[in-house]
Amino acid sequence: MNSVQRTLRNLVPGLLLLLAGILMAGEVHGSNVDPAIWRKVVRASTTVHKVFLSRTPQIVIYGNGIVVFRDDDADALHRQVKLEEHEVAGLYVIMQSSFGLTSLTNEWLNNELPYAQSIQKPFREDNDKVTIWIGMHAPPSLHTYSPALLEARSGNDVIAPAWRSMYKFNLFLAGFTHPRAEPYVPDRVEIAVQKLPRYMADQAGEAVDWPLDSIDLAEVKGNRPRGYRTLSGSPAREAYRVLTEHQTIRSGGQVYLVWVRPILLP
């Protein structure tokens, strides 16, 4: 028996408990399509558009084995993969063995905080923020830190293993990809509608017609500088198809700037 086989054999009991926890989490939230893990990233120096896009997680791992993710870049489009049963098991083996996922709680991190601070390397704090939600334990845990702080506290796997694990887990989620992933077409989206700004007036000639007669962009915008609307089903898919290619939209004799983001969380 090789070392990989021995490792998997040793991890199987813990893996079964972990997968049972996933199913339990799904029951608590009402469905196994609920998220098991998600990660968001918000940059310190950004635009209103990117802040809007950052409201959608960069990655969501669902209890049914679907993973929706994008590159760690707010302008990138999401992709989706449905993991096969053995891939789901392998993914959680990796996350448990590499990061101690089921134990990666706020309590563990708080207990280690004095030790992590004692070894903390000097770093330059900024307002970049990463938020990771872990639903693999009860209660679920929410973690929000700057990447610089996580790196500064991750220097010793013996003195502060939880902080080291959280740092590595963040990098793992940020870099997740899969060779079978395909473009993601959401069933729920949020749109943001505003009049085309004057500084973009030269783009009015590139505007495309709004394809959804049932959604009045003037009504969505209202009297506010920018209005928002959640769309579901076929309208959501059509809006996403158009707005990922074009943001300058013509409707009712007006030209609008319209953004779209997929809604990945319940």
Query: How many beta strands in the DSSP annotation?
Result: 12
What is the radius of gyration? 21 Å
Taking the sheet with the most strands, its summary is: 7 strands, antiparallel
Q: Average pLDDT across residues?
A: 88
> Which secondary-structure class do the elements indicate?
alpha+beta
**Considering DSSP H and I runs of 4 or more, what fraction of the residues is helical?**
25-40%
Spatial gap, N to C terminus: 44 Å
The low-confidence runs, each spanning 5 or more residues with pLDDT under 50, are 1-31
Strand order of the largest sheet: 6-5-1-2-3-4-7
Q: Which oligomerization state do the chains in this entry correspond to?
A: single chain
Mass-distribution shape: elongated
Instruction: Give the SSE string.
Output: HEHEEEHHEEHHEEEHEHEE
Number of helices: 8
Q: How much β-strand is present in the residues?
A: 15-25%
